[in-house]
């Protein structure tokens, strides 16, 4: 069930990203036509801000992209931190009810009929319900749904703002792909993924390994054919995400762990399913116990014979 929920969430976000990528309509010249809600309410204002910084403060387009990206990330940061906090609380509480969840999952695997499977799944849901927890893992879709359009707007602003294609930054042509920026973007998100695994259980870390590789590869794949101005946005976003993850793990996580530990001490998890300590069938246990007794008696008789000799 948890894997299904994660798959649904991931596929939903991927579909949203594809939807947003089509929100900026372009003409035969490759430039936006000016149609679309996302373009008019998000992309165009950000593009105007970049142009304003360049025209009024004599900034380079590269510095303008960096500045706007950091400002937007700072505005979105409380949502990200709140999302991380909820996820951490859910993770810590999951450790407390893990024996019950494991017992319920064992029942699901051992079920031979549809009725038994439904009953075992209902018991698992009851464990979450009684302990006031979500089977979605406490991630919450709303913060992600709010962030996606804003990040997409930044992406398109860096791609379609007039003047960026003819500008250069630190000797790099912002209108052409740059392998240097591609490598920096990949490394930035690789570091961010590594930092996100610090302090988490080994079992959970194993399930995250694939995402740690897939995420940087996706960034590299999208950046390798994009103008350097767009890749610069990914570089700054990756560095910012790494700093945010480091702050979360070093300062937020210890406080949350102590808080959850105190809450669990005052309000222990409700026992819905008794963890199964021994799932060996009764017949098998009887045979094994009988064999053990026979071996013990045989050893005792042999020992007695040796003493008589």
Automatic annotation (TrEMBL):
InterPro entries: MFS_trans_sf, YidC/ALB3/OXA1/COX18, YidC/Oxa/ALB_C, YidC/YidC1/YidC2_Firmicutes, YidC_ALB_C. GO terms for biological process: protein insertion into membrane; protein transport. PROSITE patterns: PROKAR_LIPOPROTEIN. It is found in: Cell membrane. Residues 61-249 form the Membrane insertase YidC/Oxa/ALB C-terminal domain. Residues 267-309 are annotated as: Disordered. Residues 295-309 have a biased composition (Basic residues). Residues 275-287 have a biased composition (Basic and acidic residues). It is a multi-pass membrane protein. Its main location: membrane. GO terms for cellular component: plasma membrane. PANTHER family: CYTOCHROME C OXIDASE ASSEMBLY PROTEIN COX18, MITOCHONDRIAL, OXA1. This is Membrane protein insertase YidC. The gene is yidC.
